[in-house]
Structures are given as C-alpha cells and as structure tokens.
Amino acid sequence: MSGPTGSGQNLWSGVLLGVGVVAFVDEAVFHQILHWHHFYDRSTPAAGLVSDGIFHAFGWFATVAALFLFADLRRSGRLHWSRWSGGILLGAGFFQLYDGTVQHKLFGLHQIRYGVDLLGYDLTWNIVALLLIAAGAVLLLRARRVAAGGRPLPSVASRA
Fold this sequence. Notes:
Elements (H helix, E strand, L loop, with lengths): L6 H27 L11 H32 L4 H26 L12 H29 L8 H4 L1
C-alpha cells in the first residue's frame, strides 16, 4: 500500500476515515434524526430502512479499516499527521460530492429533502464538499513540500 514512509497508508487511512465519518453523520443526522430521506427512496419504507442499514454498515467498515491502518502507522512510527488529516478531508469531501451529485442527481436514489426547493440544499451540500476537498488538498501539498525538504507553505496565522 505504501513504501517505508507510509505515505500511501497515511493517505488511505485518512480517506477511509473521512468517508466513514461523513457516512455516519449523513446516516445519523439526515436519515435517522431529521427523517429527511433514506439511502434508497424509490421503493417501500422497509426497503429504505434496509438500504440505510447497508449504508451504515459500509460507513462502519470504512471507519474500522481506517483505524486498523492508523494503528499500524502509529505502531510503526510512520504516522504523518498532515498527510493523514488531509486524507480525512479529501475522503469526506469526495464522498459528500459523490453523494450530492451522483446519488442525488444522476441516479436519483434520494434527495436531501422532499417537498422543498432543493437549490439551497444542493448548493450548500456541494460547496461544503468542495471546501473539504480544497482544505485536504492544501494539507497534502504542505505535507509533500515538507517531505521533499522544502519549507512548508505559510499558514494563515503566519500571514497575519
């Protein structure tokens, strides 16, 4: 999965955790607490509940896999916090963008809400996804620059 530095494992552990966290938040908040939708809404309520269970299991497996990779990185002393954190943000952002574009719009598995104008919800959902991706990319670029022996990019605090 990665060489002796663990760079790929750091990235994949973070990506899987980001996917798992977003899947958990989506399932817990939008499916269970707010009752806005199920993972699959084009059938019966029972099918919607089953699809939610499968979605929840997917998120749980991604989280567990991420934590196994993370534990191995910690044990072997190859954990790079910025690469791992960047992976979390990338995983969260890409999963949310995939959900908002492919699952909501292309496949029509479900919508964020029903019976309301979706434009505001869709824009918010996808803009947050893009911000997560951008933040993750910045962290990964910083990590790559530091690993290459260059100076890290200036932080927001150091520019002030």
